[in-house]
Design brief:
The chain is of the alpha+beta class. It contains 4 helices and 3 strands. About 50% of the residues lie in helices and about 15% in strands.
């Protein structure tokens, strides 16, 4: 269902990673999450790399240290990394 969302740019790998993340949350809390595509598009965005996210979020250039960027995202939101990109919760 996520891959068929024409208003999102998850891509196959991103949609799979996000679905696995949501499934893990369901297992952790012991209840099913209602799938709301609009809410997911508001809460998460896909980027090709940590540097791309930092450039978009902070206006930083690609030479920024990925580890610092990764730490910042994880301290303030959710980071899902997969082959071909990342998905970051909007914060």
């Amino acid at each position: 269902m996520l891959i068929n969302d024409a208003n999102a740019n998850w891509g196959y790998s991103g949609a799979t990673a996000l679905a696995e993340h949501l499934h893990q949350i369901e297992e952790d809390i012991g209840e099913e999450i209602e799938l709301d595509l609009v809410s997911l598009r508001c809460d998460f965005a896909r980027y090709d790399s940590l540097s791309d996210w930092a450039e978009s979020y902070f206006g930083l250039n690609k030479e920024s240290k990925e580890e610092k960027i990764r730490d910042y995202i994880q301290d303030h939101g959710t980071l899902i990394e997969f082959t071909g990109g990342i998905i970051v919760s909007q914060f």
